[in-house]
Amino acid sequence: MRSDPFGGQQQQRARRPGLFGNIRWWVLLAFAGYAAFYWFSNRSVDPYTGESVLIDSSLDADQEMAMGLQAYQEILQQERPLDPNAQVSRDVRAIAERLIRKVDVVETSLAEEHGLKPAHFSRDFQWEVNVIQSDQANAFCLPGGKMAVYTGLVPVAQTQDAMAVVMGHEIAHALLRHGAQRMAQQKLTQIGQMAGAASGMDPGQQQMVMSAMGYGYLLPYARSHETQADEVGLMLAAAACFDPREAIPLWERMGQASGGQAPLEFSSTHPNPGTRIQNLQALMPKAMEYRQRFCETAGGSTAMR
Ligand SMILES: [Zn+2]
C-alpha cells in the first residue's frame, strides 16, 4: 500500500509506516460502525411529518423538558418579561391558548395522513408564554412548551392571525422535537470528531472526511426543520380559527424586517423568502381545509394592540 488515503498535499504523512495507515483505517471503521449503530438504533418516524428522524432514545421526554425549563428560567432572568396583565401579554397568551388547544386534533389528523398513530408527546408539556421587551422580531418555543414572544415581533406581525402563524411555527418546532434531533445530530458530529482524533488525522484531514461523511448537510437539515415547522404551524393556526393566508404577507414583512439585524430564529438557516412563500402557497388549500374542519367559530382579523 503506497498511497495514504488521506494524503493529498500532506506528503510528510505518507512517509509514515504502512502499518500505521492500516490501524488508522481500522479505527475509522470502528467509529463508522458506532456511528451507523447510533444512527440505526435511534431512528423513529415522526407522526406529524411521516418522516424518519434521529432522536437519541436515551433522552427521555422528561429530560428534554427539564432542559427546556432550565433554559427558559435562565432567559427570563436575563430578559425580564413584560407584566402578564399588559395588553400585549394577554393577546399573546390568548393566541397561544387557542393554538395549544388544537395540538391534539392536528397531530391526529396529520398522523392519519401518513398512516400513523399520534404520539401525543406534547400532552405532558407545561405550556407557558411570556412576552419579552426587545427590538428583535423574534419568538421561540422550547422543549416542554415554554414560549416567548419578543415585542419587536408585534409591529412585524401586525395582526393576530400573523402572530398566530409565527407562534404556530415556534410551537411546531417543540412538537416535532427539533431540539432533540439537533442534539442527536451533534452527537454524530462528535463521533466523527472523535474518530478523526483517535485515528491521528490532523484537523485539515478531519474536515475533509467530515464533509465526505455528509457533515455539510447541517444547513439544509436546519432548512427542512423550518419547512416542517411552517407546515405544522400553519395547520395549527388554521385549526385554531386564524386566517392562514396571513402567512404570506407576514413572511414578506419578516423578510424586509430582517434585512438589518437578522434575529436568531429567522436568520440564514431559514429557507429563502421566495421558496418559503411558494411552499406556503402550496400548503394553503390544505390549511383552508383544516380551518373548515377544525375551526368552530371563525372571526374577523384583529389587529395586535
Ligand atoms: Zn423556525
Would you give an account of this structure?
InterPro entries: Mito/Outer_Membr_Metalloprot (IPR051156), Peptidase_M48 (IPR001915). Belongs to the peptidase M48 family. This is M48 family metallopeptidase. Pfam families: Peptidase_M48. 58% of the residues lie in helices and 7% in strands. With 305 residues, it is mainly alpha-helical. The protein has a domain at 52-179 and 221-294. Helix 11 packs antiparallel against helix 12 (273-294). The radius of gyration is 23 Å and the shape is globular. The protein starts with 10 loop residues before the first helix and ends in an 11-residue tail after the last helix. The site of zinc ion has 5 residues, from helix 7 and helix 10.
Q: Give the rounded overall mean pLDDT.
A: 83
Number of helices: 12
Low-confidence stretches: 1-12
Percent of residues in beta strands: 5-15%
Q: What structural class do you assign from the helix and strand content?
A: mainly alpha
Total beta strands: 5
N-end to C-end Cα span: 73 Å
Biggest pleated-sheet summary? 3 strands, mixed
Question: Into which percent range does the helicity of residues fall?
Answer: 55-70%
Rg from Cα: 23 Å
What general outline do the C-alpha atoms trace? globular
